[in-house]
């Protein structure tokens, strides 16, 4: 399993304009692929030209949603070197998702090795322009070519990559968020902590409604009591309540974000009191009334830090940080992106050089 | 959109042995396919040789679980004619699933027309042996070739078909069911009523645990209070409690089964009192102690009626119908399969001939 076969792309594509990168549209010249079956386990690791998959129309992932994925980035520093940000955290999370979805575990060290190899081959695809990066999508799909609602007997693990633009084209910008009251994304006992298709499928409807009303994301409430804050579409959330920074505890229904973890570690190192705990909408409303809820932001790989300028719950609008970028949001954004793009020291050892 | 282009399979496969049909493994010579995009809507309807799909590794269904499906059967009657059972119910349900998953609606009449055409082309694949049938799998997948957790801008609708054996090789047989206490399949506000990958992905883990312990399926409880009965893996459930037949009401978290609907209609026509209502495990335990809970069965396209001989909740074993086939289960099974395989009159007009 230590060998990665390489088939070079003999017809490399023209790279897209770095100043007009649309998220998730332009893929690099190569992808990593390996297969699993009961006899051989994971086998046939290979880097091949990026291109379509041939899948049986009956295959498990197309019917029963047995699929997991990750999202991470490679960044180019001012010296032109390429760095990853906490990549092992992603592969560990992938395995936790795999466990929940009855997908065989992947050798995390080997996955990292494969990723490094792939990035080296497509290194010219890591964009140079300020704020851009290479988005990396490892994913696993059940590929047994037969119907039946049981775990697949065959799988594919792939890594595909695409250069992406700055999330905030015009600089960091506050977003409006809407507390979702009708739809539920995930529930205790479900698979909310896993990065798997079904969780995103369940969210589409609410996201569409929110977008129509001019909101960028919905804030999910817990599925049981529908009063405790969970997370937004693709971000974890933080609230500044007086001298406490609160983020919902990980209780199985939300994704354990790697940016979330980094924010907690950073804030703690700066001397902030960070609480991972239950937080109800009512508590937020109370705090807002008292002038004690002053700042909110989301954390995720895509946007890094996303300041929230407006939070709507039913017909109550909570305006935060004067609708501007909160102080803590800005500081966290600067520090995290500074570390990621190699402009600041990395005291935590979070980054990993792609040799 | 009224034209279906036909590309005949010039290399038809050998048909599998009708006495050894494994569910979901052998597909017929053709499949139906059509595509959707924003400009053209549903277009390019075609029947083509059954074969692999070429999908972008970035396509929506492989990452974000935007996929819906149906399951139905075609039956051969003693005169060799082929019949469908309530097929429009399936296409209507597919559209309800599509609506929840932000997938464009399909013209139900057209889908039926396409299915009839497809069955006619592969009519020799509808098996003749007692208890066998042709399983039909319509499904829709999001196929936009780019990443991003939003509704796909492209879709494929397909119908694939496979001959399947009798569900109970040795005749109707009681199964053992286990009340699931840890995992949750779906919750109010979620997508439990839709036939979509994520619901099945969420179930895999519990099914695996149950299978290891010798149970054939788990019985799901509601995700909020974890005390009300929902359904089992791929069946709705019915309980005979004194002179009342109870089945969980449709409140958004369980699949509205077409067999369930037919059972309710049949039972009512026979003069039974059928209640669609909330039913707690505690009520079941109470009724069992009093000798008032005498029979339980599942209903679904695959098994039609599945008598339950043993229901386990925590460490309490409820033995039902003496571990044999309950009286009502047998009567419903005989009547429903009689109608489906054209051996009994069809007073409800449920069957539809494939001309
Ligand atoms: C549902 C959800 N929550 C939170 C996050 C943030 O996680 P991370 O910081 O690891 O990107 C993401 C995105 O990855 C997500 O999809
Ligand atoms: C979750 C679930 N519940 C119930 C059913 C039964 O529905 P039907 O009777 O329409 O087959 C099925 C199978 O189709 C199912 O997958």
Question: What does the model show?
Answer:
Two copies of one chain form a homodimer. By secondary structure, chain A is of the alpha+beta class. The first copy, chain A, folds into two domains: 5-164, D-amino Acid Aminotransferase, Chain A, domain 1; 175-340, D-amino Acid Aminotransferase, Chain A, domain 2 (Alpha-Beta Barrel). In chain A, 24% of the residues lie in helices and 31% in strands. In chain A, the strands form two sheets. In chain A, strands 1, 2, 3, 5, 6, 7, 8, 9 and 19 form a nine-stranded mixed β-sheet that branches. In chain A, helix 2 packs across helix 3. The longest helix of chain A is centred in the middle third of the chain and has 16 residues, at 197-212. The first copy, chain A, is globular. The site of one pyridoxal-5'-phosphate has 13 residues of chain A, from helix 5 and strand 16. Chains A, B: Its cofactor is pyridoxal 5'-phosphate. Chains A, B: This is Branched-chain-amino-acid aminotransferase.
CATH architecture of the largest domain in chain A: Alpha-Beta Barrel
How many helices of chain A does DSSP assign? 7
The residue ranges of chain A in which pLDDT falls below 50 over 5 or more consecutive positions are none
CATH fold category name of the largest domain in chain A: D-amino Acid Aminotransferase, Chain A, domain 2
GO biological process, one term (chains A, B): amino acid biosynthetic process
Catalytic activity (chains A, B): L-isoleucine + 2-oxoglutarate = (S)-3-methyl-2-oxopentanoate + L-glutamate; L-leucine + 2-oxoglutarate = 4-methyl-2-oxopentanoate + L-glutamate; L-valine + 2-oxoglutarate = 3-methyl-2-oxobutanoate + L-glutamate
GO molecular function (chains A, B): branched-chain-amino-acid transaminase activity
Family (chains A, B): Belongs to the class-IV pyridoxal-phosphate-dependent aminotransferase family.
């Amino acid at each position: 399993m230590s060998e990665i076969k390489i088939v070079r792309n003999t017809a490399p594509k023209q790279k897209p304009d770095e100043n007009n990168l649309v998220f998730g549209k332009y893929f690099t010249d190569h992808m990593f692929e390996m297969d699993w079956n009961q006899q051989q386990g994971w086998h046939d690791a290979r880097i091949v030209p990026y291109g379509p998959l041939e899948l049986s129309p009956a295959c498990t992932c197309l019917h029963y949603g047995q699929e997991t994925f990750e999202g991470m980035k490679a960044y180019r520093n001012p010296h032109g070197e390429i760095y990853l940000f906490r990549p092992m955290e992603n592969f560990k999370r992938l395995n936790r998702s795999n466990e929940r979805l009855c997908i065989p575990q992947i050798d995390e060290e080997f996955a990292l090795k494969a990723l490094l190899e792939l990035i080296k081959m497509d290194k010219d695809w890591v964009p140079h322009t300020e704020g851009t990066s290479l988005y990396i999508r490892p994913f696993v799909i059940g590929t047994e070519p037969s119907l039946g609602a049981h775990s697949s007997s065959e799988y594919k693990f792939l890594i595909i990559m695409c250069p992406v633009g700055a999330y905030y084209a015009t600089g960091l910008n506050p977003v409006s968020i809407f507390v979702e009251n009708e739809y539920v994304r995930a529930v205790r006992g479900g698979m909310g902590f896993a990065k798997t298709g079904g969780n995103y499928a369940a969210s589409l409807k609410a996201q569409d409604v929110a977008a129509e009303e001019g909101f960028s994301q919905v804030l999910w409430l817990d599925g049981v009591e529908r009063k405790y804050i969970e997370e937004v579409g693709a971000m974890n959330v933080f609230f500044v309540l007086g001298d406490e920074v609160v983020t919902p505890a990980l209780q199985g229904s939300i994704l354990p974000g790697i940016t979330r973890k980094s924010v907690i570690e950073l804030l703690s190192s700066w001397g902030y009191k960070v609480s991972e705990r239950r937080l109800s909408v009512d508590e937020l409303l109370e705090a807002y009334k008292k002038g004690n809820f002053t700042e909110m932001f989301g954390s995720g790989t895509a946007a890094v830090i996303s300041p929230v300028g407006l939070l709507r719950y039913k017909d109550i609008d909570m305006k935060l940080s004067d609708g501007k970028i909160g102080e803590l949001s800005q500081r966290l954004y600067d520090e995290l992106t500074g570390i990621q793009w190699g402009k600041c020291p990395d005291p935590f050892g979070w980054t990993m050089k792609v040799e």
